[in-house]
């Protein structure tokens, strides 16, 4: 279980996160939503340990991450960041294999199990045919999938994703999120995922956490949080919420034509 307790983060004098508390249970996807600047990426970075926190605590299955060495922390949670921080000269395979770093011995040599983990991650993300290509030669969407493959090779109980569908077309958005959904269910992963697309959050997340100006405004099932009243007030635009005909998830349409002529 991932437990986030009263997390507080500041950027200089600006309060970026104000007492945020969340719980992500095994097999569950929690979708982080909110306007630009609400604190979604900051929360992902704070949980991962990249962003210093002023107060609060993050625990994974009872272990306080703040007192763990970096190597031990990397065995508990993996991150798919928003920025594509991949060495351009590395091959796709080498990039995926980086995820095994927390498990390597002092010589840093990957073993049979490490290579098998990397191969499986590339197969799951449909990158096996690109395994020998240089990362710098790939499209933005392909690099995004390499980041996910690298995270999967860490084989951690917690997976953090910051806008994972960025640069992906509709087909690969669907494939990636279906893969995350499958991994969460099959391996009982705790998944915390920041998303701009409210419809994707409603379709794939078990719980939705709505951040506004660094505060947790609402958290619950998509049909409870993604209402016309709440979204209209937060995004300052009228919206229509319907029900997906096949899955029963909320479908959000902004009333963007209001006031237009013609």
Explain what the structure shows.
The protein has nine helices and twelve strands. It is α/β, with parallel strands linked by helices and 262 residues long. The chain has two domains: 158 residues, P-loop containing nucleotide triphosphate hydrolases (Rossmann fold, 3-Layer(aba) Sandwich); 68 residues, no CATH class. A six-stranded mixed beta sheet has the order 6-7-8-3-9-10, sandwiched between helices. Strands 2-1-4-5 form a four-stranded antiparallel beta sheet, with helices on one face. Strands 11-12 form a two-stranded antiparallel sheet. Helix 4 packs across helix 5. It is globular and about 55 Å long. It starts with a strand and ends in an 8-residue tail after the last strand.
Name the features.
262 residues, alpha/beta, Rossmann fold, 9 helices, globular
Percent strand: 25-35%
Helix/strand class:
alpha/beta
Described by strand count, sense and barrel closure, the largest sheet is: 6 strands, mixed
- Mean pLDDT, all residues: 93
Which CATH architecture of the largest domain?
3-Layer(aba) Sandwich
What are the segments in which pLDDT stays under 50 over at least 5 consecutive residues?
A: none
User: Strand-and-helix sequence, N→C?
Assistant: EEEHEEHEHHHEHEHEEHHEE
How many discrete structural domains?
2
* SS element count, helices: 9
Helix content: 25-40%
How would you name the CATH homologous superfamily of the largest domain? P-loop containing nucleotide triphosphate hydrolases
Radius of gyration: 19 Å
- Ends apart, CA distance between termini: 53 Å
What name does CATH use for the topology of the largest domain? Rossmann fold
Q: What general outline do the C-alpha atoms trace?
A: globular
CATH class of the largest domain: Alpha Beta
Largest beta sheet: what is the strand line-up?
6-7-8-3-9-10
Question: What oligomeric arrangement do these chains adopt?
Answer: single chain
């Amino acid at each position: 279980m991932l437990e986030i307790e009263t997390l507080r983060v500041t950027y200089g004098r600006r309060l970026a996160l104000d007492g945020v508390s969340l719980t992500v249970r095994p097999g569950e996807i929690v979708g982080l939503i909110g306007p630009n600047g609400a604190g979604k990426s900051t929360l992902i970075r704070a949980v991962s340990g990249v962003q210093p926190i002023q107060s609060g605590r993050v625990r994974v299955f009872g272990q306080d991450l703040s007192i763990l060495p970096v190597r031990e922390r990397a065995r508990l949670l993996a991150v798919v960041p928003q920025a594509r921080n991949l060495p351009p000269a590395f091959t796709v395979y080498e990039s995926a294999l980086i995820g095994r770093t927390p498990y390597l011995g002092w010589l840093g040599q990957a073993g049979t199990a490490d290579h098998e983990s990397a191969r499986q991650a590339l197969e799951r993300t449909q990158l096996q045919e690109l395994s020998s290509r240089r990362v710098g030669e790939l499209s933005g969407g392909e690099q995004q999938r390499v980041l996910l493959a690298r995270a999967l090779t860490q084989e951690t109980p917690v997976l953090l994703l910051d806008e994972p569908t960025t640069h992906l077309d509709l087909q690969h958005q669907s494939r990636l999120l279906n893969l995350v959904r499958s991994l969460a269910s099959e391996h009982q992963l705790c998944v915390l995922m920041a998303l701009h697309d409210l419809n994707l959050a409603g379709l794939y997340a078990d719980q939705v956490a709505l951040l506004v100006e660094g505060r947790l405004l609402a958290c619950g099932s998509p049909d409870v949080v993604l209402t016309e009243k709440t979204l209209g007030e937060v995004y300052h635009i009228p919206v229509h919420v319907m029900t997906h005909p096949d899955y029963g998830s909320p479908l959000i349409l902004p009333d963007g034509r209001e006031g237009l002529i013609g």
